[in-house]
User: What shape does this take?
Amino acid sequence: MMKKIRLIDTTLRDGMHAVSHQFSTEDVSAVVKALDDAGVDTIEVSHGDGLGGSSFQYGFSKATEEAYLKAAAGAMTNAKLCVLLLPGIGTHKELEMAANAGAKVVRVATHVTEADIGEQHIKIAKSLGMEAIGFLMMSHMVDVDKIVEQAKLFESYGADAVYVTDSAGAMIPTQITERIAAVKKAVSIPVGHHAHDNMGLAIGNSIAAIQAGADIVDGTCRGAGAGAGNAMTEVLVGVLDKMGYATGIDLYKIMDAADDIVMPRLHRPPMITKESLSIGYAGVYGSFLLHALRAADKFNVDARDILIEMGRRKTVGGQEDMIIDVAYELANRK
Amino acid sequence: MSKKKIKAAIVGPGNIGTDLMYKLLQSDVIEVDTVVGVVEGSTGLKLAEENGINATAKGVDAIIGNKEIEIVFEATSAKAHEMNAPKYKADGKIAVDLTPAMIGPFVVPAVNMDKMASTDNVNMVTCGGQATIPMVAAINSVQPVAYAEIVATIASLSAGIGTRQNIDEFTETTSRAICEVGGAKEGKAIIILNPAEPPIIMRDTVYARVENPDEEAITKAVKAMEEKVRSYVPGYRVKTGPIFDGDRVTVMLEIEGAGMYLPKYSGNLDIMTAAAKAVGEKIALNLLKERGER
Assistant: This one.
């Protein structure tokens, strides 16, 4: 029998970064309907930085989180609705709201060394009857042992699955292989991988992850996402099928969803540009891209210099405010 | 002749309590009489003894009934303070609460020190609140702040287990205080932990939404507030800003700890103990004045 790979589509969460969180509730309904119809198992809908992310720091959403989730829940028949929550940004209040609005899955995302700030939320999610997934971001920043330690923490809190997430699109396939294989060996829950395409490796790294034992991978239609975007859902479906894995997704239908439904709604299709390549190269958080471009424009500096400096300062996900600070300093240094 | 001081106790001899003890050793108006813990021979209790302070591992009951102790600094946990607060009250002690218990009103020394004149329990908000609310209040003193958002970034090493196990408490308490003390109509707080080595110094960003901001007046108010906070937190500084962008006003802060007991990067812990000292001293001074001692 073909091994089943669970594919989580995050066009309406990570893809929010690509449109500065400006999808409308109509966009959400239309995309969810197409994904659900194509057979996507789990569909993630949230602000790019998770529940409660609508802010000066990350950009304000076009609609409220509740409106998005209700629109999504109303457009779905078979798929499971998923939300993202970053402890420190979103709280139990937003999680309870999401559960009431129909969310069945939550991914609790922490920096790769800080899983313990997510214990509270994993437990709340379980008490709400949700599936709870631990999501270790920026996992290129530490060695294998540290990732294993943190993945085991999530498992000990009761997480149903754990992710090794390449938020910066900074890793090469061999790094993915060693990380996924080690985590897979250390935990007894399913293991996932979330890739970004800043170095052109999103599909390749997803394949490496699956071959190393990953059970779940993430994708977005047309690769819509932070930085140079994500692994393309439609490409994953085609490639995995050729490799003999089952995704339960209809290839024609997911191609239609990507090209006809999602593509016209993207303000700027993600691609590997000098700036997004710099993100992967410097190993900084993918959603810094548009913030760095805006700051570069305002302070008349090269966005690449900002991004490389952000990497040098060992910034983590969520530190968008530092971009203004760095741009300001670079401008004054001139 | 040395001047009369008000006697105080510190309950909870952990990092915060011990740092506070060192700060209060230099006070002109407060004398730390006792440090209270629950573990015999703990580091905090040993350091108290080394500095000539009474140390007890018998918990708060050891100081209840000792009427000489008039102020108690609570550096335990919200749960512990909820149990202890009624005991202090019944014993006539004024509590300065460094936990997130929120029994008494919020106090940020640079903003609403007058608030506590009439209460027997004051709450010190959160580290992020102590750092950012003065700036919200400064901007709000010039023009109304419709919405204020703060982002506190602290070194992972300086986030204790209490913060980690209930990180929602930080965001919720801080956003409430942004409105209640800072004066913003709506408030939001974000906290980020950064594990970089060497550890980063605490940094905070304050965003405020102000219609047609008066750049000159706001800049003046921000600078004046910086000086006011620096009077009790010397490592506090406006690093960048205010920057004006449409209706968004941005101020970036950096807080370096005094480095007395805790490392300098943990400005988040330093600002809590420095603020608690400022509040405690104000209470003590009021008591001394009432009695004609000052």
About this structure: The domain at 274-333 of chain A is CATH 1.10.8.60 (Helicase, Ruva Protein; domain 3).
